[in-house]
Fold:
Amino acid sequence: MNEAPATTERAWTRNFTEAGIALALVALLAGIGTVGWQRATRRAHVRQAVAFLNDLAERQRAYRQEHHRYAATGNDVQDFWPRDIGNGQSNLWGLDCRKKGDAATHPGWCALELEMQPHERVWFQFVVLAKDTTKPWTPPEADIRKPQNDWWIAKARADLDGDGQFSDLTFSSEMKEPRLVDELE
Structure:
């Protein structure tokens, strides 16, 4: 008679132990999956920004062919668009160059005729500077080695995980592809 409670107690302990091990494995796999998902998400956002910068480079070449200079979207390296973005959040692109107000306020973006729609979400902010003899600005030597020639430089930044540190991309008329700094922050 005494064997039944001991057997039940052992079975209960064994089942409880097995359930604990199963729960620990599920938690471990969830943790690994979350980290993998976060990395994949960040890489997708970076790929979106790289594709945007590559399109921008093509548009700059076409713009220069027609206007004999490059287009700029800002007057300062901190003149990013969209203005409000960060803390691990995306924002709407927001510019609609078909609207007179947007075309007048953002002539550089509209001149480049980028195919970004106002309702599209972006994770990065962008700015494009170009050589302008009326507003001399010396670009970083790492990006433009010959500032006496016509040049453009594009910067993109995002706080992909909301920690206040930015992932940065730089592309210029002298580069073959965008340069990424601190993708995983």
